[in-house]
């Protein structure tokens, strides 16, 4: 069950940057992969990945999140050397853009290499539980030895190969408690190693071993994820749960034939809506493919928030 509450996190210490969480931060996704579920292969080499980084920054991204291994359901693991080959050259160049550079990885050796190259944030679907079989090095050790890198701890049920074959079971209330408790335990493990609270944000792991109703309840009750004060990162972008919601709609009154299965990029509007709802419920970072649309939507929300403050 939720632990004692703490003051809301107002800043995220992320390497070279201290991010203001009074306003939502937009984390743009850069998949340096051939097989990611939404844009696999589009930015799979260093040059195209860096061009994509520049495009995301023009559209309004305030953080870049670079990943070299797809974690879509059923995806195979990528060998360490291959992940380093994909990611490290992009990170080495992206740190020159003078924005926080995040790396989406669970391998401690990759974490060490990208932090040494100047990356600011480690975004880990395994919440730093993975340990190198060769060196016995853990992600916890890597980030604890770094003076200031930001850390995103995510909840995942099982692993990418099996998470949607055997998703979480139990009633939605129990699922929310389980996700909350797991994330608090992982954060507490870092506190014990001397990692400052302001370096840590939490991600409930939408789509990582949850059913569609469970994902929706995690959004509805998102406030319980950050009951201990940690900021929440929301990652709804183009997820299959949104596709399931859209596919349940009745056909529209148009001449267009309504297809029962939407491609990932056709979930963009639903993604923007889900992220707006997440921000309404307290999320401070949104991890998105569709940066420009998200930025515009959040700008309207922020303008309304400013009116409310002045009226008060």
Radius of gyration: 19 Å
What's the average pLDDT? Answer: 89
Largest sheet: 8 strands, parallel
Q: State the helicity in percent bands.
A: 25-40%
Strands ordered across the widest β-sheet: 8-7-6-5-4-3-10-9
Order of helices and strands: EEEHEHEHEHEHEHEHHEH
How does the helix and strand content classify structurally?
alpha/beta
Count of extended strands: 10
Shape: globular
Uncertain spans, ≥5 residues at pLDDT below 50? 253-260
Number of helices: 9
Share in β-strands = 5-15%
Task: Give the distance, in angstroms, between the N- and C-terminal Cα atoms.
Answer: 34 Å
Report on this structure.
The protein is an alpha/beta fold. Helix content is 38%, strand content 14%. It is built from nine helices and ten strands. The strands form two sheets. Strands 8-7-6-5-4-3-10-9 form an eight-stranded parallel beta sheet. A two-stranded antiparallel sheet has the order 1-2. It is globular and about 50 Å long.
């Amino acid at each position: 069950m939720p632990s004692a509450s703490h003051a809301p996190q107002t800043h995220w210490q992320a390497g070279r940057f201290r991010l203001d969480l009074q306003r939502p931060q937009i984390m743009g996704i850069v998949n340096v992969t051939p097989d990611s579920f939404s844009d696999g292969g589009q930015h799979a080499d260093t040059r195209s990945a860096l061009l994509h980084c520049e495009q995301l920054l023009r559209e309004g991204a305030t953080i870049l999140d670079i990943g070299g291994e797809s974690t879509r359901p059923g995806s195979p693991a990528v060998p360490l050397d291959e992940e380093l080959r994909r990611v490290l050259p992009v990170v080495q160049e992206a740190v020159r853009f003078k924005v926080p550079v995040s790396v989406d990885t669970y391998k401690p050796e990759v974490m060490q290499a990208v932090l040494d190259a100047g990356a600011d944030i480690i975004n880990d679907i395994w919440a730093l539980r993975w340990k190198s079989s060769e060196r016995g090095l853990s992600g916890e050790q890597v980030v604890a030895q770094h003076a200031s890198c930001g850390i995103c701890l995510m909840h995942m049920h099982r692993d990418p190969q099996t998470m949607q074959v055997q998703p979480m079971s139990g009633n939605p209330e129990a699922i929310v408690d389980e996700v909350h408790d797991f994330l608090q335990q992982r954060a507490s493990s870092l506190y014990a190693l001397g990692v400052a609270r302001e370096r840590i944000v939490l991600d409930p792991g939408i789509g990582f071993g949850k059913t569609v109703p469970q994902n929706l309840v995690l959004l509805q009750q998102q406030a319980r994820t950050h009951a201990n004060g940690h900021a929440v990162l929301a990652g709804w972008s183009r997820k299959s749960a949104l596709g399931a919601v859209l596919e349940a709609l009745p056909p529209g009154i148009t001449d267009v034939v309504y297809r029962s299965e939407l491609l990932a990029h056709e979930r963009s509007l639903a993604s923007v809506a889900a992220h707006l709802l997440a921000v309404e419920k307290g999320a401070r970072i949104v991890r998105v493919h569709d940066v420009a649309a998200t930025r515009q939507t959040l700008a309207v929300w922020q303008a309304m928030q400013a009116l409310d403050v002045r009226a008060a």
